[in-house]
Amino acid sequence: MPRFRTILDTVPPYRAGKAVVSADGRSYKLSSNESPYEPLPSVVEAISKAASRIHLYPDPGATGLTNALAERYGVPPEHVAVGAGSVTLVQQLFETVGEPGAEVIYAWRSFEAYPLMADLAGATSVQVPLVDEAHHLDAMAEAITPQTRMVFVCNPNNPTGTVVRAAELEAFLDRVPEDVLVVLDEAYREYVRDADVLDGLTVYRERPNVAVLRTFSKAYGLAGLRVGYLIADEPVAAAVRKTTVPFAINHLAQVAAVASLDAQDELLERVDSVVKERTRVREALIAQGWTVPVTEANFVWLRLDERTMEFAAACAVEGVAVRPFEGEGARISIGSPEANDTFLAAAAAFRNA
Ligand code: PMP
User: Fold this and answer.
1) Per DSSP, which regions of the chain are E strands?
2) Are the C-beta atoms of 230 and 182 separated by less than 8 Å?
3) Is residue 147 over pLDDT 90?
4) If 85 and its partner were Cys, which of 103, 119, 226, 242 is the partner (CB 3.0–4.6 Å)?
5) Does any ligand 1 atom lie closer than 6 A to the CB of residue 187?
6) Atom 1 of ligand 1: nearest residue by CA position
7) In angstroms, what is the span from residue 102 Cα to ligand 1's centroid?
8) pLDDT digits over 51-100, tens only?
9) Ligand 1 site, residue 159, Cβ cutoff 6 A
10) pTM metric for this prediction
11) From the CB of 215, is ligand 1 less than 6 Å away?
């Protein structure tokens, strides 16, 4: 048998959200934080046109998209790195800092790709437990050692939806040495309505060791095409670009992302509707008697401990796929009003059973 890296024996698997179907054929996928909306016609049209060019390699530097992002956010193009989904940029970030002995700190539970990518890069994960479902930034600052290369702050946090607010983030960043990279993973930034949460792009402008990670997968509805981006000072963005697999961001993805930036207003209106549904879902759950952390993302979190898998199974019977974390809780994406109503009915039935 070929010899593999021993880390592959213990690497945590990435479990993607699954779809389920009820006995009468209903299926609501609330397990992957996807947009409940189909793509905009203008974006589909751009992709269709671009399809006639797919016999050619894509632009290796994703120049059009990079420039469009730079212009949109008022940053130099040298500060932008584009990836095949922001999860690929997470992997690239680990590749830029990860080697035996290098430590990377992140809250736990948080985005489940962090431990996987840390292991694959040969870095050491330092997981700092959430407190009240939120980042404990003091404990994270205390966990920094001379071996620390990078800290992830997932804001809002996946899967709990909680946020880190301005004062605590600034106080934390003041404690982080300048040679430690802080990555603000803002995959759900567009859903944030709490005015006390800093926009990572404001923070990055003041701090050369802060990188901001965003995605077209959620608010922009391009999960199936895989595009994300990083904005950071030139040395960081350049290091990340060096780890890009050649031609990783395909032509259709590049074109669709540019078309989506052009349709930003229309897409952000959709985000507003999701945010309204989020409020409705959370309030309905609280009225049913659940404890639901305040969420600034496109999902809610229910701590269910040992009843988690039973809850997921009860939702599945109604055709609702949620994302369970065994022994901990379940994350439920905000979907269409119909999907949300079906989920709420399943949650009520579970409580009353
Ligand atoms: N960061 C966070 C916090 C996420 O929840 C996700 C998606 N689950 C990602 C990054 C990656 O998203 P994508 O690769 O689709 O851009």
Assistant:
1) 28-29, 80-83, 103-108, 124-129, 148-154, 181-185, 210-215, 228-231, 299-303, 320-321, 323-325, 329-333
2) no
3) yes
4) 226
5) yes
6) 187
7) 23
8) 999 999 999 999 999 999 999 999 999 999 999 999 999 999 999 999 99
9) no
10) 0.97
11) yes
